[in-house]
């Protein structure tokens, strides 16, 4: 259970991170932030290049549709040349967010199903700890009483549960 929960948390964090990669450089307060650019450079740029968002129109159709006022570049400081990394930025941002979001939803659904099954199993076990029908008409009275006595001695059921089951068996026998 803990492992499944951890995976779900990590997947949620991953899709939020991918959205951050997409959105943060377009926000004016983060556009020139060295920490943000350093992280984006590590993700988008080759070694020896720095990430530099430029406030110039981006002609990529998705960027235009979203209204992001910048073009992401990876600049080689030695050669002072820049490479437009719009496609890579969108692939990691949108693609990474979408894939990790779907996986996190599947993981959360699996957690819910696991929890429901686990609770249902506990309810069934609590209502019938031995997993058998003590009122089975094919068993004799002595067999039923012996079965619950064995369960009590083995610690499978408490004395109170034993007493309730014994009373129920005897009551059923007298009603016949």
Account of the 3D structure:
- By secondary structure, the protein is mainly alpha-helical.
- It folds into two domains: 2-103; 128-176, no CATH class.
- 64% of the residues lie in helices and 9% in strands.
- The chain has six helices and three strands, in the order ααβαββααα.
- Strands 1-2-3 form a three-stranded antiparallel sheet.
- Helix 1 (2-23) packs antiparallel against helix 4 (86-127) and helix 5 (141-154) runs antiparallel to helix 6 (159-175).
- The radius of gyration is 32 Å and the shape is rod-shaped.
Radius of gyration: 32 Å
Mean pLDDT: 79
Number of domains: 2
Q: What is the count of DSSP helices, taking H or I runs of 4+ residues?
A: 6
Number of strands: 3
- Gap from first CA to last CA: 47 Å
Structural class, judged by helices and strands? mainly alpha
Indicate the low-confidence ranges by residue numbers. none
Order of strands side by side in the largest beta sheet?
Answer: 1-2-3
The dominant shape is rod-shaped
Task: Report strand %.
Answer: 5-15%
**Helix content range of the residues, please?**
55-70%
């Amino acid at each position: 259970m803990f492992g499944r929960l951890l995976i779900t948390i990590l997947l949620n964090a991953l899709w939020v991170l991918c959205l951050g990669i997409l959105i943060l450089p377009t926000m004016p307060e983060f556009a020139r932030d060295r920490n943000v650019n350093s992280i984006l450079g590590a993700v988008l740029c080759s070694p020896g290049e720095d990430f530099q968002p430029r406030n110039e129109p981006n002609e990529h159709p998705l960027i235009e549709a979203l209204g992001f006022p910048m073009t992401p570049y990876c600049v080689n400081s030695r050669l002072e040349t820049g490479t437009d990394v719009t496609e890579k930025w969108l692939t990691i941002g949108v693609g990474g967010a979408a894939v990790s979001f779907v996986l996190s939803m599947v993981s959360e659904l699996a957690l819910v199903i696991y929890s429901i099954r686990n609770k249902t199993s506990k309810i069934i076990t609590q209502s019938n700890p031995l997993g058998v029908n003590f009122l089975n008409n094919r068993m004799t009275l002595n067999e039923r009483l012996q079965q619950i006595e064995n369960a009590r001695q083995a610690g499978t059921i408490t004395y109170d549960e034993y007493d309730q089951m014994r009373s129920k068996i005897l009551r059923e026998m007298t009603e016949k």
